[in-house]
Amino acid sequence: MTQAAFFVLTALADEPRHGYGILREVEELSDGAVQLRVGTLYGVLDRLTADGLIVLDREEVQQGRLRRYYRLTDEGMRALDAEAERMAAGASAAKQRIAEGRKAGGTPPVTGPGLAGGLA
Amino acid sequence: MTQAAFFVLTALADEPRHGYGILREVEELSDGAVQLRVGTLYGVLDRLTADGLIVLDREEVQQGRLRRYYRLTDEGMRALDAEAERMAAGASAAKQRIAEGRKAGGTPPVTGPGLAGGLA
DNA sequence: ACTGAATATATCGGCTGCCGATATATTCTG
DNA sequence: CAGAATATATCGGCAGCCGATATATTCAGT
Predict the structure, then answer these.
(1) In which domain, by residue range, is B38 found?
(2) Which end of chain A is more exposed for a tag (fewer CB within 10 A), N or C?
(3) Is the CB of A16 under 7 A from strand D?
C-alpha cells in the first residue's frame, strides 16, 4: 500500500468524505506534514475502488457543486488496520535500532555530540 | 521517503552492513513482511548516498567475495528518526479513526456483521 | 567432478504511481 | 468583474519498484 492510499483510507476511517474533503482532511490529520495532491487523489480513489477497499457512498449536490462521497468497505477497514499495524511495527523497530546503534561501542555510526538531544 | 529507503536506513541503524546483508536484515527485522528486492536495493543505496543519508563505510574481501559496507550519517540518523516519528503518528491516527468510526452512531462506515454481506 | 543453492555484486527495461499543469464550473469575497 | 475557494477530472513527465539477467565464488549434496 502506498502512503497516499494509506492516508486516504485514514481520512475515510471515521466517516464518508468527498474528494476535496479528503484532501483537506489528510492535511489536517497529519498536522500539515502530508500534502495529498489533487493529481494524486483521483488515481488513488480509482485504485482503491478497484481493489474493493472503498466504495462510492452517495452523490450530493451542495450549493450547485457536486460532492461524491466515498466510504471504507469492510475489507478497506481491515486493510487500513493491518497497514497501521505494520507501520507502527516498522516505526518501533527503527526507534529501537537507533537506540541500539547509540549504545553500541565498537564503530558508532556517526553519532555526534549534537545528536543525542534530537533523537529522544 | 519511500518504504524501501526507510527499511534500508533501519537496517543500517544499529551497525554498518553490506548490500546483501541489508536484504536479509530487512526481511528479518520486519518478520518477513517486507521483502526488499535486489533490483530495488542498489537504486535506493545510490539515492541515499546522493542525499547524504548514508556513506560507504568500508570494503572487505571475505572469502573471495567483495563486501561493500554502508553506514548511516548523522543526517541519515536524524532523517530515520523523523520518519519513524511520522510513521508512528500516522499509524496512531489511523487506529484512532478506526475506533472513532466504530463508535460513531449515524452512518457507521461499514462496521459490523450486518453490513458485511451487503456492502460490495 | 558436477550441480544447484547461497552469497555478493550490478544493470536494464517495464510498469506503477505521484504530481504539476491544465480544464471546467459554481459560489463567495473584494 | 476579478480572484480565491470549492469541487470535479485528465494528461504527461518523472521517479522509483521489481523481475530478469549477468558475473563470480563458496559450499553442500549426489
Answers:
(1) 3-100
(2) C
(3) no
